[in-house]
Amino acid sequence: MSALIAAIAKIEAVLALIASIVLFAVMGVVASDVAMRYVFNHPFGWSYDLVSLYFSLAIFYFCLSRTYSAHAHVGVDILHYYVSTRTRRAFALLSAVAALAAQDVIEGAIEWPTWAYIGLAPLGTALLTVRLVADGVAHAIAFGGGPELIPLPPLARSDEGLDGASFE
How far is it, in rounded angstroms, from Cα 83 to Cα 81? Predict the structure, then answer.
């Protein structure tokens, strides 16, 4: 199980690097488009669609699983201050299972060729799905008295939460 969690973390790091490169490309495309629009009065006709359909999806979905694993997502943890570690583990297990069952979808309004950008969401969400399954199993093992394979999310107002408030 530890090897699977480590492998998922490596894939998350690679996708986060790709998302960083894509974000840099967004800045270049948008800056170039602005220059072409206001300096030469000839904007790129393709930049909005490229950034909104392809690049935005890549940035979001390629960081989705890593954000979850780093506990950098928005979470409601008010009860965590009043319950035991075992109950917190049960909450973490339930949230992983509930997130797996949500079946959220995203629909686009512009009809561009969909074969390329439709693949971005499943790639990012597939990794998140694998992460959720691995985390759910790891929390179930710890909940059942086994070893703690992954830590619980840190409490937001604690030293634990303040010290671990970044990806690295």
Answer: 6
